[in-house]
Amino acid sequence: MATFLYKLGRLAFRRRHFVALIWVALLTLAGVGAASAPPAGNSSFSIPGTEAQKAFDLLEQRFPGASADGATARVVFKAPSGEKMTDADNKATVQKTVDELADGSEVASVADPYTGNAVSKDGTIAYASVKYDVSGMELEESTKDALEDAAQQARDAGLTVEVGGDALQAVPETGATEVIGIAVAAVVLVITFGSLVAAGLPLLTALIGVGIGVSSITALASALELGSTTSILAMMIGLAVGIDYALFIVSRYRAELAEGREREEAAGRAVGTAGSAVVFAGLTVVIALVGLAVVNIPMLTKMGIAAAGTVAIAVLIALTMIPALLGYAGRRVKPAGAKGKLLGRSRKGEPKPDRPAGPPKANLGTRWASFVVRRPLAVLLLGVIGLGAAAVPAASLELGLPDDGSQPTSTTQRRAYDLLSEGFGPGFNGPLMVVVDAKGSDAPKDAFDDVAGEIKGLDGVVAVTPPAPNKGGDTATITVIPDSKPSSVQTEDLVHAIRDAGGDVEAKTGAETLVTGSTAMNIDVSEKLNDALVPYLVLVVGLAFLLLIVVFRSILVPLKAALGFLLSVMAALGAVVAVFQWGWLSGLMGVEETGPVMSMMPIFMVGVVFGLAMDYEVFLVTRMREAFVHGEKPHQAVVTGFKHGARVVTAAAVIMMAVFAGFIGSSESMVKMIGFGLAIAVFFDAFVVRMAIVPAVLALLGKKAWWLPKWLDRALPNVDVEGEGLRTAGERGSDPDEDRELVRA
User: pTM for the full model?
Assistant: First the structure.
């Protein structure tokens, strides 16, 4: 592989005009496609194989024209102090609002509060339910404006009016902190390279890669039903890995220049060595993201594939466009150790010498690695204990999906949620819809009544509506109001109790009972994700383990990499629980409402963090293996790996943290949580696991770390990540076969 990539790097360097033209053309094509594509429609959230989804599908079949997937809105009214909603003036205001809402072109129905028993017992709060023909993302702006105008007119009449439901859902915004993250990345790159030109190359290529990826997602959003969150997550991951991959190749290019090589040769060798690490690091990320398909939740699968596509683009750009841009930059990219104009002049304006007189001072990475190999056990214990302590809150992890109750208190959706809880109880915001399929029953009406009677006798039930059959009389819906809020454990227990009671009724009458609705859907999603976590972990870690055996030609190094990942991801989950569930530092993070952690968070973090963790593992440990294969002692190889890689890995980790942290400012709670979780996971993995635990373990293992059975060594393909095939006879100083025998020993 190193030889192929070496040739590719040299070709891109020589044919830089052609390479640049291709990428600019692809960016233009993707941009035109995004601009001309129809707006994204409904990103349907389905969970095949669950009872809630089965009931939802049954409703669409048995209640045609009911717009089961249409948007809904609850316009909540509260009377002024000392008045009631049943007063004549207030009643007239509500009636006027209902009439205005009913005139909307996309409105399917509006329920009058006074005829639908939608006034609280104390008479102070009432609500009107609005049902639309299309989903919230497909509603026209004029329809949303009409809803807000109707609410405002009722406010002007003296009532407190708030609007809940998904009719007013908006595309999430990431905020200014995303730009701050990119600015931090730029500063880190300038400090790392000491040159604006060298620092600008990774940023430029990353932005081009993300531009192509996100524009392609936008162009395909309508056809593939991709949600707005998909492009945000693709942007988040694409920016981070795009900058990192380019950073490693530019850094290796400067190191090759420092050894006296010509620029085209240096570009070829940089792509052949660091580029090999980029390919395998990118493969681990792609495996982890595409592997999300095993969960069998279409939305999660699409998110993973879209992000994986952006990562693949980042890899291709790093391998081709970076050497092309290095050809354009010429002498403006200095060798490692030499300073550019930005940082390379004294106060008097005289150029500083490229290298100080006398023996060079050991850099911080060398000094740190030397300390670790002298005290490996102490460093290992300290790192493991520290991550273990950070992981403690994960034992209290509660999972759920966000609803209006998790919105900031400044939003009308959250205020409507609170008003409904005040007037009708906390369970009113999460009603359960029970669907009774009596097609196989001899007495459908009796079956409906039996189900309703069983539910009324359950604990935790506030109200049960009479069965509402369809025109065919073979299916009915029953609405159940719990006495607990939607995200509570008590509501989850009630859903299971209703399903158990339905099983008893089915045994007697032959009628099947199904529970659906947003609350039941959330519960089923959480359970499905929990069930899929272990198989997903085995699949992703297993495939990546095999891949790393090929890369490192070792058994223990990939095993150590996987165990270190588990430590970092558990510590990151602990931090997420502490902030978003317990409320620690919630004000600093902009978390206005604590609650259950998003159900997708554990499995999503496992996938993404594993891929990113392997980035640092590959970049750092391949340098160590390269030194070991070339004849250095195990301890010295660890130090050499840090000498060449620690500064760049540190810069890459800080950049990735800055990019992820930039998404903490998002208005979408899911994006905010993922941004924080990935940022803290990169911190734990890069600085604790890869910078401390990894060298400590390698120092303790010595030569055993690179052990591989001879039969397996012969069976595995030689991918030559170390670039041995690029070395001349004079550079080798020994027969490469002898080096390989050293590894087997």
Answer: 0.77
